[in-house]
Amino acid sequence: MEHLMAVILAAGEGKRMKSKNSKVIHKICGKALVEWVVDAAKECGVKESVLVVGHRQDQIRECLGDKVAYAVQEQQLGTGHAVMQAQKYLEGKEGHVIVLYGDTPLITSSTIEKTIAFHKENKCSATVITADFADPSGYGRIVRDKNGDVLKIVEDKDANCEEKNITEINSGLYCFNIKDLLAGLSELNNDNKQGEFYLTDTLEILAKKGSKVGALKISEASEIFGINDRVQLAEAAELIRKRIVDMHMRAGVTLIDPASVFIDAGVVIGMDTIVYPGTYIEAGSKIGEDCIIGPNSRIVRSTIGNGSEINNSVIIESKVGMDTHVGPFAYLRPGSDIGSKVKIGDFVEVKKSIIGDNTKVSHLTYIGDAEVGSNVNLGCGVVVVNYDGKKKNKTVIGDNAFVGCNVNLISPVTVKDNAYVAAGSTITEEVPENALAIARSRQVIKEEWVTSKGMERGKK
Fold first, then answer.
1. Which residues are catalytic?
2. CA–CA distance, 403 with 413 (Å, rounded to integer)
3. What's domain 251-352's architecture?
């Protein structure tokens, strides 16, 4: 059986990141750096990925869970030493292995596929992905023979003057025949200025044995861009963000200003939806067709139905039905389920509540831990008082109910179908079906109170 595997190196400390967290779990567009690499390998048919971990491995394991197998590099003694830690997963297997880095999130499944195809077609023992850099400083140089095959890769610190002039650099990304990789690893030594075991030396070992070592030069050099600090993290994020917004536009989504919109990986947006500037749509969100999203909205792990409009609002872990209008300045907190043809207006906050179809909550209202029926009208300043100081309680408002302005609904309480609540009321008991509830003091007028008390405004 021919295997296609990946070994992904992620054991480094990443000091230049200046972080308490592992470098490879820093996120770009909703995914950790190492997740981008793991997913790229999976998309091109890799069935088993082995992640070599070291520093802060607990964080990496928590991030990826059982998506990969793990090998531990206790001491960081070079890339060759890192791959040696994964040998137990490779031994006894036929096929090919891709070697990748956990901090190169721009690598695409397309490039990995092309590398594997090149490797097989040219019957190589090893293939390295390369690119031309105008300034190759700091990178290993590709030394080729007269036929264009790779003789060796020379690390920048070990390169002589002639080798330093080579502009074709080593990406550190390879495809090996599994057996040939194991044979090369068995002969590695650390006889170099760094005293490390270089994976690159395995290519020279294989070449000296007469095995063919190929090199696939890619035109898009950004794919092999490795991240070492926050500046490079931002640069890579911009490239990935552009890939994502371009993909959505090609799928029929209008982005008014693509440079100002941030969409995480995996977000689904239906065609003919328009996204306005300043909008963030985060991982796990699904937007329907013919929607208007933004400007300046944030949608997190939420679903928005066809034809809905979200204007200057925040929606987190919630559901919005079809042809619903939310905002401006609304806040849907986790667990909210908003129906179709609903109006959630300005400065309305909804938390862990169900709002039925055709209901209007126009402005300055808080609904928490409630179940609101269909065709309900909640006036300005309605507050569902759901917290008694110890626990959250539920309020139920039936279909076709009308709740006037400045009403407090003291949970737990029920307002039945077709009931009315007068403005300014504080409701503590059930309101029966078809009833009107009035819970306020009768108005009292005290004639001439202002003048008798000397309370005229503007009087000098």
1. 363
2. 13
3. 3 Solenoid (2.160)
